[in-house]
């Protein structure tokens, strides 16, 4: 990025809103992705942006993109920087647009139950503001404390209670997006219309490769009268999965179904929640009006009993709810020098169990001799299937960073290829980013060229987050 | 980081926090600057990057490290209680040791060294003292911390009326908190030892403090950061808590105040001492009745500090001003016309920047005006 272009950015945001120091560039060279963290940990460097800008308005974002487009400067949108897929990394240098100054709540509409806010607003801050009105945005990702509203949407994130309320993409009503040519567009005000194609969805999951989300209107809901939680213990994954399937196809509307496989039950549940159990530990939850939630829970308990589950009562369920984010605080969370990856997937009920067994067998079979283990839980459920949130874990990564990277990528290859081979998607909610970019063509097959043509039409110079979501074209 | 206070406690902390973002939502500096580099995880990552030779302590990295307000919200909201502020302070101590601290910090160090050995007000003999103190003159607000605010006199009168009379003590004496926050370990330790010695010599058993910051300093900073033990037979109580207790017991009688209730600013460091946020609000309710009071968004256990915190004004006056302005803006957007606080330092800081938009009033003056004879 030459000095003339930097001056143009500076003229848009002001001289105090552009950073080029070594410290800034290092801080923005790492996100929640294990690989850059490992490289930094071992003293290596990853690609860095030439500059970081801090616009205060959507109009400024659009102007920045226009300049970058003219100068063929790669642009990476940055929200919370906590994504695990490397989606916010400046893989090809260029410019990072930190959106956190776009943090205003425009409107909380208590009659129609929606909130309109800028994309850089912190998730928990938004939630606290809604809670003060007796409302909630029912998207509770573990990253809420660090992620932004735009970061919820760009990778199509899920939250803890998505089983009832849907993913972030199901809660969005409309968005404003800055395009790489400097245009600022707004999608229709409501999503459920029949006035042409729903092009808003093009930007959901695009992770900044089509444009920068600058504002969103999200459905909100009233805080429930009650939330009921219960813990069950199943003999194995098979019976637990069947219980969850029946709750979903019988439309019991559970808030959450979270089932840990026996290995996770013995390790994670013990370490974080303190329960020493053998089997598949499941949390179920229901919310809303007390009479309805109680009836739904009673029916779910019947299903669990019919499948031989042991009812552990409400206390362990409530304990999980109250400590559901504890898993993500160090040193409880996975961290270096361990090597790990969340190789999660989603599939229909008729396939998901086979995927679990295949991935467990393959990862443990191919890498078990190296000490790599496999743990899993099933955490986001749909009327047609469920998400398998599974991880590989090695207590200590190889000392040589190149060797560690090669092993890390090899395990990922095997895990994702196994998911694909058994009818799973490469991902349910963490997004694609840099990490899974190489699998997109295999995932989409014949449909991939169409997606690439859409990308080329919207971003002909390939400046938007190059190297991510399978779009590898770099600025010429 | 090889300082006396970079212990087995602080090094794992910066290791743990460098790739953790779970407290970002409460960081006031991150909030007003919107810069990733000025957030808890980035401070930890900067420390660890220096340890790994990817960055060095220089003007740039020192400036980054001195942007933390040492308000404690990150640790307060950390499920695993990582003492990141202590790790940051330890890194600052290393920066000071290397002579790479910002000029304003080194100037403060020279000033405090020069005042070494000069007499400071002691503690009069007696069983209960109201610690007045001074905060080393690190900001214009702190320099104006004198009886001119009237808050100390008001507090003494209220304590008398509540049946817990106290004598003022330690006037002009710094607790060492600001010096500690800024990494001036030797100076902070000397100030702490002197103060503890004065307390022990006086025979005082109950020390009342005007600021949550003082309570936190005596009970946490001294033992954990400076290795100075506060006397175990001396209790530390906030004046506000003593008054709230007396009010609840009917020992402090207050008359009703006409007009709308004010908003309340929880003083700097309130969250980190797990302060009962309902106590000052209860005192206000005692004079304003049940009218709903406007509330700042960043309040109680998530209370953001004003710009008087942590000596921030010395090296980053722009950030300090933004923090103060954010509190004032928060009160105005909540619909308040008056903002009340009990910490005299916060009071001076907020008054200095409120202008005509907001009336900033001391809690003790306000309560005294409603004392029933």
Can you walk me through this structure?
- The complex is a heterodimer of chains A (476) and B (373).
- With 476 residues, chain A is α+β, with helices and mostly antiparallel strands.
- Chain A has helices spanning 3-13, 22-27, 34-41, 58-71, 123-131, 149-153, 162-165, 168-171, 200-203, 237-249, 262-273, 290-306, 314-322, 349-367, 401-421, 440-444, 448-458, and strands at 18-19, 51-53, 75-78, 95-98, 105-109, 114-118, 135-136, 172-178, 184-186, 212-219, 221-222, 226-234, 256-260, 280-288, 310-313, 339-342, 345-348, 373-381, 385-394.
- In chain A, the strands form four sheets. In chain A, strands 12, 13, 14, 15, 16, 17, 18 and 19 form an eight-stranded antiparallel sheet that branches. A five-stranded antiparallel sheet of chain A has the order 5-6-10-8-9.
- In chain A, helix 10 runs antiparallel to helix 12.
- Chain A is globular, with a radius of gyration of 22 Å.
- Chain B is an alpha/beta fold and 373 residues long.
- Chain B is 47% helix and 7% strand.
- Chain B has 18 helices and seven strands.
- In chain B, helix 3 (40-51) crosses helix 6, helix 9 packs across helix 18 and helix 16 packs across helix 17.
- Chain B is globular, with a radius of gyration of 20 Å.
- Chain B starts with 9 loop residues before the first helix and ends with a helix.
- The model of chain B is unreliable at 1-5 and 135-148 (pLDDT under 50).
- The interface between A and B is large, with 48 and 31 residues.
Tags for this entry?
heterodimer; A: 476 residues; alpha+beta; eight-stranded antiparallel sheet; five-stranded antiparallel sheet; 17 helices; globular; B: 373 residues; alpha/beta; four-stranded parallel sheet; 47% helix; disordered N terminus
């Amino acid at each position: 990025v030459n000095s003339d272009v930097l001056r143009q950015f500076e003229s848009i945001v002001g001289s105090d809103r552009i950073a080029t120091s070594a410290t800034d560039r290092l801080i923005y060279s790492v996100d929640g992705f294990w690989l850059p963290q490992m490289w930094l940990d071992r003293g290596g460097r990853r690609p860095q942006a030439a500059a970081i800008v801090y616009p205060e308005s959507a109009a400024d974002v659009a102007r920045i993109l226009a300049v970058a487009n003219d100068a063929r400067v790669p642009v990476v949108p940055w929200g919370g920087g906590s994504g695990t897929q490397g989606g916010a990394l400046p893989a090809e240098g260029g410019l990072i647009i930190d959106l956190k100054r776009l943090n205003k709540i425009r409107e909380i509409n208590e009659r129609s139950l929606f909130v309109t806010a800028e994309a850089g607003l912190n998730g928990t801050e938004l939630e606290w503001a809604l809670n003060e009105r007796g409302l909630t945005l029912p998207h509770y990702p573990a990253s809420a404390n660090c992620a932004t509203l735009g970061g919820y949407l760009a990778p199509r994130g899920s939250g803890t209670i998505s089983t009832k309320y849907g993913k972030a993409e199901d809660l969005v009503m409309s968005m404003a997006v800055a395009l790489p040519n400097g245009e600022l567009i707004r999608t229709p005000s409501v999503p459920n219309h029949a006035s042409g194609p729903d092009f808003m969805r093009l930007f959901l999951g695009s992770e900044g490769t089509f444009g920068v989300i600058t504002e969103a209107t999200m459905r909100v809901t009233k805080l429930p009268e009650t939330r009921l939680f219960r813990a069950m213990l199943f003999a194995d994954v098979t019976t637990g999965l069947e219980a969850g399937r029946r709750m979903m196809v019988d439309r019991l509307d559970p808030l959450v179904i979270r089932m840990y496989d026996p290995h996770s039950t013995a390790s994670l549940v013990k370490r974080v929640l303190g329960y020493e159990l053998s089997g598949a530990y499941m949390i179920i939850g229901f919310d809303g009006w007390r009479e309805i939630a109680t009836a739904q829970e009673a029916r779910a308990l019947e299903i669990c009993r019919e499948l031989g589950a042991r009812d552990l009562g409400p206390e362990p369920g409530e304990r999980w709810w109250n400590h559901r984010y504890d898993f993500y605080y160090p040193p409880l969370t996975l961290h270096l020098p361990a090597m790990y990856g969340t190789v999660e997937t989603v599939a229909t009920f008729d396939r998901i169990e086979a995927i679990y067994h295949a991935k467990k067998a393959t990862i443990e079979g191919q890498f078990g001799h190296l000490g790599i283990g496999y743990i899993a839980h099933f955490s986001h459920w749909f009327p047609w299937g469920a998400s398998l949130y599974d991880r590989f874990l090695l207590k200590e990564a190889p000392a040589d960073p190149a060797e560690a990277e090669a092993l890390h990528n090899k395990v990922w290859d095997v895990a994702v290829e196994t998911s694909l081979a058994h009818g799973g998607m490469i991902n349910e909610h963490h997004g694609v980013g840099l990490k899974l970019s190489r699998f997109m063509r295999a995932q989409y097959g014949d449909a991939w060229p169409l997606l690439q043509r859409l990308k080329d039409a919207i971003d002909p110079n390939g400046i938007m987050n190059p190297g991510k979501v399978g779009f590898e074209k770099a600025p010429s | 980081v090889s300082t006396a206070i970079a212990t087995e406690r602080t090094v794992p902390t910066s290791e743990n926090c460098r790739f953790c973002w779970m407290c970002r939502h409460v960081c006031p500096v991150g909030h007003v600057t919107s810069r990733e580099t000025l957030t808890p995880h980035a401070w930890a990552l900067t420390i660890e990057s220096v340890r790994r030779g990817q960055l060095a302590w220089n003007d740039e990295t020192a400036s980054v490290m001195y942007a933390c307000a040492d308000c404690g919200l990150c640790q307060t909201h950390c499920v695993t209680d990582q003492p990141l502020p202590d790790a940051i302070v330890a890194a600052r101590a290393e920066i000071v040791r290397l002579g790479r601290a910002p000029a304003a910090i080194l100037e403060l160090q020279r000033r405090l060294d020069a005042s070494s050995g000069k007499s400071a007000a002691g503690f009069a003999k007696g069983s209960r003292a109201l610690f007045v103190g001074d905060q080393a003159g690190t900001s214009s607000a702190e320099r104006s911390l004198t009886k001119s605010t009237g808050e100390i006199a008001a507090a003494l009168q209220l304590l008398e009326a509540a049946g817990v009379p106290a004598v003022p003590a330690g006037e002009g004496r710094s607790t060492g908190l600001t010096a500690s926050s800024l990494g001036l370990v030797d100076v902070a330790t000397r100030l702490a030892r002197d103060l503890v010695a004065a307390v022990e010599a006086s025979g005082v058993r109950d020390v009342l403090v005007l600021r949550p910051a003082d309570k936190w300093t005596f009970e946490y900073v001294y033992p954990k950061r400076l290795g100075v033990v506060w006397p175990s037979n001396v209790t530390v109580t906030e004046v506000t808590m003593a008054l709230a207790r007396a009010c609840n017991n009917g020992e402090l009688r207050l008359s009703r105040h006409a007009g709308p209730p004010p908003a309340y600013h929880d003083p700097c460091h309130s969250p980190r001492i797990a302060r009962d946020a309902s106590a000052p609000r209860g005192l206000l309710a005692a004079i304003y009745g049940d009218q709903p009071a406007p509330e700042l968004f960043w309040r109680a256990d998530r209370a953001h500090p004003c710009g008087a915190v942590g000596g921030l004004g010395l090296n980053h006056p722009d950030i300090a001003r933004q923090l103060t302005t954010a509190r004032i803006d928060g009160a105005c957007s909540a619909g308040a016309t008056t903002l009340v606080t009990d910490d005299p330092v916060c009071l001076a800081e907020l008054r200095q920047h409120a202008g005509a938009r907001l009336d900033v009033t001391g809690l003790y003056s306000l309560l005294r005006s409603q004392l029933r004879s």
